[in-house]
Structure formats: C-alpha cells, structure tokens
What does this fold into?
Amino acid sequence: MKKFMRILSPIQLAIVGILDIAVIGYTIFAIKKLIQNPRSTVIFFAACVVVALIVAVLVTKEVVSHGVIFHDDEMEFTGLDSDNIFAYENIVKVETQKDDKPSFVKNYIDRQSKIILTLKDDKVVTIDIGITTKGTLKKISDEICSHIGTQPVEINETAVDTQIETSDIDIEE
It folds into this structure.
C-alpha cells in the first residue's frame, strides 16, 4: 500500500499561481512581439521569457511534489533533503503544533505547522511542514497514528501576555 498526502500551503499555491500566470502572459506578449518585429532586442526578450517559463515549470513542479508518502512499514517526507524516512516501528508518539492565534509580533516561522515525532531511542524529531491548514496537519497526524496505533497529541502555543500594572510605574510630573 502506497499513499501520498500532499503538503501544500494555500499561500504558497496562490503566489506560485500568480507568478505562473504572469510568466504565461509575458510569454504570449513576447511571441506576439517576435512575430510583429523580429529584432535582436525582441529575440533577447523572448529568450529571457523562455528561461523564465522553464524556471516557472520547475518551481511549480517542486511546490506540488511536497508531501508525505506512506508505505506499509515506513513514511517518507518528500520536502526534506535528508533524514526524511521514518519506520513506524520506531515512532512512539506523534504531536502536532500549529499556532493560528492572531498576533502582530510573530514572525513567519512562528506560523508554520510542525509534526513532532518521539522515537524509541528518546530522540525527538521536529518536522517543519510550512504554513498549512489545520485540516492538512490533522490528516497527516491521523494517518501516522493509524500506522503506529496511538492517538495524536495537539500542542497549542499560548502567547505570554506581558502586562504592566500602573501601580508599578512611578510617574514624575
């Protein structure tokens, strides 16, 4: 049994889609100009657009190919370069973390979803899967847990409120 779950960020999909539409528009424009007036500057522009089209195809392919492949005895994260294969028998616990509380002080990295695997040798592996929806994160953790026979644990980050009491501040007039 081989099952693939795509990890696709809605923000990433929108940005790549807009860039692909722009490159296609420039390609159409370059072809029209090349047909109307085949000068050296137009040929150079058309060549640059062809390179941009090739890059756009490769970037789109890379974004769409990220995910998790679930095999019978192991899983593989395709978006990671190394240490991306985990045997189900070595996983003890699965935790997920996604912070979706509104805040103006959190960075882009603070918003990314994480899967935290606790292995048999007490090693903890945190896999950052990017900005995804809660549904995608839940589907992946449920699938992992169905293979290892446990329940997923969701970790919610709570923002530490720092409040200053007015009685602690001395105001001089």
